[in-house]
Amino acid sequence: MGTQTVTPQAVQHPYTRYLRTDRLPHIWCPGCGIGIAMGAFLAAVDELGIPQEKVAVVSGIGCTGRVAGYVKFDSYHTTHGRPIPFATGLKIARPEMTVVVFSGDGDLVSIGGNHLIHAARRNIDLTVICVNNFNYGMTGGQMGPTTPHRARTTTTPYGNLEFPFNLPYLVAAAGAVYVARWTVLHVFHLRESIKEALQRRGFSFIEVVSPCPVGFGRPNKIGEGLEEMRFYREHALIQNGLHPKDAALSFRDRIVVGKFVDEARPSFLQVLEDHFRNASRDPSHREG
Amino acid sequence: MSNAVLTGTHFMLGDHACAEGAIAAGCRFFAGYPITPATEIAERMARRLPQLGGVYIQMEDELASMAAILGASCGGMKTMTATSGPGLSLMLENIGLGIMLEIPCVVVNVQRGAPSTGLPTLVGQGDVMQARWGSHGDYEIIALAPSSVQEMFDFTVLAFNLAERYRTPVILLADEAVGHLTERVVIPPPEEIELWERPRPTVPPEEYLPYATDESLIPPMALAGEGYFVHMTGLTHDERGYPIINGEAHERLVRRLLEKIRKHAPEIIRYEEVLMDDAEVAVVSYGITARSALRAVREARRQGIRAGLLRLITVWPFPEDQIRELSRQVELFVVAEINQGQIRREVERAAAGQVPVAGVHKLGGTLITPDEILEALWVRKP
Amino acid sequence: MAANTFSGNGSFPFWREPLDAQQIPHLSTSITIFPDLCKGCGYCVEFCPAQVLATSDRLNAKGYHPPEVVKPEACTGCQFCMRVCPEYAIIVEKKLEVPT
Ligand code: SF4
Ligand code: SF4
Ligand code: SF4
């Protein structure tokens, strides 16, 4: 027992085979949680034994959008807000693949918000991992759709006058069949949750609350990543099965995490298979 | 699939012929959003595709439609969307992505009166420059302009072929009049429809560089799920597909993307010449307006004017060499189009002051009549 | 394995080593740190349940203080440090050691 002096080749991190190692180290800031969330996803794929060539990752723009550039799957770094519709097309073309959208809250919920709710409504067979850092990190910490009321960002210097989305409530209302939220400190729960989501048919959504010391922690006097993580440790409350409407994040007292929705409903691709059968019986098709 | 190609002679709506052309070309994925006057394409695809194992999906908007056809094309399907000007405005974001990532797909724009909501049910040809330059940055695009229902079928097949061969989005720049016209269309037997497929990698994944090219400048495309672990990014990227943020890499990539189309322009560019051999006046037109132009040219000949027609099939790339050539022959160009001179300026540019260029223009809502063009030929005849 | 460290951090003073401790299979862990990957966030040190790690004094190539293993015998093999490290700079391997 104890530390071994081993050459780097001798031990391999379990994530290595799923990473484009020639692109590392990644660009994320010290203490950024995106790397932890990405690792949890890689661990989930690994533990489920999904063949590497049967996984596709689609990202949009922003810090989390860079995930597609680091994972060694078929990976697509698309336009701002559009990873979900891009992934929708990809999944329909390759239904045998596990297609995962990995992006940030600004990308998925603000500029891509309409795609998010419609994907949930049509219950398209995708897993969306949404890293929520409460701001636009890539552009230097502006207010976004998840920024808490009164929080300070570079574009809310007097505090955010608006109110944030409660993401689990939003996607659950839109029709997602699996909805969970974890912080990156709950990395084991997160991994298990991603495993569950990847096995569901239909639209699954996991919000990952993540420290962003640069864009959010410092301006709001929470501090560096470590202080943000301590904050999660002290304020996170696991409430599995909680009605998503009660899952609003409050940055002053509690961060509710857990699995809020896990139910079965025919997915887009399941319904589509029936659609094929019905259409081929339709006698009126020849001339349209 | 037995009924994929509806071989035979039909009396068909232009929009429907476009849908049938797509199906005959092997399109099995259509993502769209209803918009007049392109809705009939979506409706036809919604009915036809499921019978052929294909998928019609109605997206929440045109942004999503465009993104979805790119995604499905990366999965290996031939894909299409159809819209009109307001929708094209939204699609241009991801048309830029398609150009940068080199994803084959077809975008149909059935033009209507514009700007803004304009004239939803009436004709226009005002999106010519939008199709050329609408997405940000420098790029080349291929756009085809059908003049008949037959060409709605034929050019849709051609659009897929060009998209696949050159790995690029191709725009079918139709107009409301052609889209809503019903006339004869002959659909050939499948074996007579030539289909081109995108270049595919011939090397194993370890040796594959997604954006490495030979002198064709067209990189072979690995599909999702084949074990090539493709990475595609809208950021400036190197041959591995990895982002690389500097001027030299940008020059290398964007230069190749431009040259990919420019180099092959002689094979891509298509136009039709009628009575041009001895013409002194060249009428340049395209789309529905080319039909009026043809009539005007015939009538002019009867009246003793040596007129000819240059009908653009590829509006983009623009056949500027041919215009340059003709400026040594003709004394006048007359450009007829339902916009304020979008192609006339291109003709002026190519003619470079050698020959005067006149225009017959409308804003949209009504067609340009043969008489209006004829009048221009008389008035301008030197 | 020493009896007084079997409980992890050694804080449970009344633990006695079972008489057959040397005969039963037990978990052995090894921690590998790649100091040059570290960006010094401190998560591994802070959240290791057994205080196995500490921030070292040395600076790595990027100018951060990577962690070092200070109480190897306390490691439970939970791999939390490995999973929480945003830079994938720590590997914890577990193996079952069967006495010979
Ligand atoms: S700005 Fe924030 S989200 Fe972006 S990399 Fe830095 S810490 Fe992470
Ligand atoms: S494996 Fe667990 S106990 Fe061991 S060093 Fe890491 S966090 Fe601490
Ligand atoms: S968690 Fe990783 S990056 Fe952070 S201090 Fe520990 S080794 Fe360094």
How would you characterize this protein structure?
- The complex is a heterotrimer of chains A (288), B (382) and C (100).
- Chain A is an alpha/beta fold.
- Chain A has a single domain, classed as Rossmann fold (3-Layer(aba) Sandwich).
- Helices cover 34% and strands 16% of the residues of chain A.
- Chain A has an eight-stranded mixed β-sheet with strand order 2-1-3-4-6-5-8-7, with helices on both faces.
- The longest helix of chain A is centred in the first third of the chain and has 15 residues, at 34-48.
- Mean pLDDT of chain A is 93; it is low at 1-8.
- Chain B has 382 residues and is an alpha/beta fold.
- In chain B, 37% of the residues lie in helices and 22% in strands.
- Chain B is built from 13 helices and 16 strands.
- In chain B, strand 4 (78-83), helix 4 and strand 5 form a beta-alpha-beta unit.
- With 100 residues, chain C is α+β, with helices and mostly antiparallel strands.
- Chain C has helices spanning 43-47, 80-84, and strands at residues 26-33, 53-55, 67-69, 90-97.
- Chain C has a two-stranded antiparallel ribbon with strand order 1-4.
- Chain C is elongated, with a radius of gyration of 15 Å.
- The two termini of chain C are 15 Å apart.
- At the A-B interface, strand 2, helix 3, helix 5 and helix 10 of A face helix 2, helix 3, helix 4 and strand 10 of B.
- Strand 2 (74-77) of chain A pairs parallel with strand 10 of chain B.
- The complex binds iron/sulfur cluster (3 copies).
- One iron/sulfur cluster (SF4) is lined by residues 38-44, 66-67, 85-87, 89-90 of chain C.
Strand content of chain B: 15-25%
The CATH topology of chain A comes to Rossmann fold
Helix residue percentage of chain A: 25-40%
Task: Work out the radius of gyration of chain B.
Answer: 21 Å
Gist?
The complex is a heterotrimer of chains A (288), B (382) and C (100). Chain A has 288 residues and is an alpha/beta fold.
Give descriptors for this structure.
heterotrimer; A: 288 residues; alpha/beta; Rossmann fold; 34% helix; disordered N terminus; C: 100 residues; alpha+beta; Alpha-Beta Plaits; two-stranded antiparallel ribbon; 4 strands; 10% helix; 22% strand; elongated; binds iron/sulfur cluster
